[in-house]
Amino acid sequence: MRIGILGSGLMGGKLGTLFARAGHEVVFSYSRSEKKLSALAREAGKNARAGTPYQAVREADVILFAVHWSRFDDVLSQSGSVAGKVIVTCSLPMNAGNTALVVGHTSSAAEELAKRARDAQVVSAFNTVPSEVLFGVYDARDKAPRPSLVYCGDGARGKKVAASLIRDVGFEPLDAGPLRNARYTEPFALLVAELAYGGRGGPELTYRFERVR
Length: 213
Ligand SMILES: NC(=O)c1ccc[n+]([C@@H]2O[C@H](COP(=O)([O-])OP(=O)(O)OC[C@H]3O[C@@H](n4cnc5c(N)ncnc54)[C@H](OP(=O)(O)O)[C@@H]3O)[C@@H](O)[C@H]2O)c1
Fold this sequence. Notes:
Helix 1 packs parallel to helix 2 (34-44). The chain has helices at 10-21, 34-44, 53-58, 72-79, 109-116, 134-139, 156-169, 182-198, and strands spanning 2-6, 25-29, 48-50, 62-65, 86-89, 121-124, 148-153, 172-175. Strand 5 (86-89), helix 5 (109-116) and strand 6 form a beta-alpha-beta unit. The chain contains eight helices and eight strands. The protein is an alpha/beta fold. NADP nicotinamide-adenine-dinucleotide phosphate binds next to helix 1. Residues 7-12, 30-33, 36, 66-69, 71, 90-92, 94, 127, 130-131, 189 line the site of NADP nicotinamide-adenine-dinucleotide phosphate.
């Protein structure tokens, strides 16, 4: 797949690198430092390059949306049309201090993004794990059992794409239903963050749901 990365920070930088390693064509964009984008692309190898948000989106089948809640409108204003694209978003609706959700109960960051990108298929994924686990999960992808990763969305095509990228990174995708269920997965992400960053064992925390028969 051709994947445009909007937001090349902790999440976008690492996920973009892993997508490139998994064989996808990746364009890193939307950093305040062009040098950082070039370095990311160089380190991610031959499948990756740096670009503007407009270039990243124009040439992509899939967009990874990985920016702070406060940057949603700004990055979309630079992206050009997202019509027909699958947007996989890991973004959470955090306040400026990253201490609380500013949207919840009646909406979610993913639904708010879908309202701003009506012609795209938005899928919420990758937001329920800390960035610190991503390379380790990728390195352990041949070991069973894999950690779970919940995702939700409304379009079958977008969900299929998201599930495939989740598998590429080394997780087992867990379909959490329609996009409105991001109202549940986003607060769950804060629980995982609380356990990861507030606990004693370090932030490298994943989760796995098991069904007891
Ligand atoms: N980090 C995690 O473990 C984690 C886990 C789950 C969900 N999330 C969510 O995923 C999204 C991305 O998180 P992240 O940790 O990857 O964030 P981050 O490291 O801060 O990356 C955000 C990206 O946006 C870019 N950006 C461009 N203009 C900006 C501006 N004016 N102000 C701030 N940033 C600007 C940053 O640029 P620079 O490159 O110049 O910094 C960076 O590339 C957020 O919505 C977050 O809530 C994060």
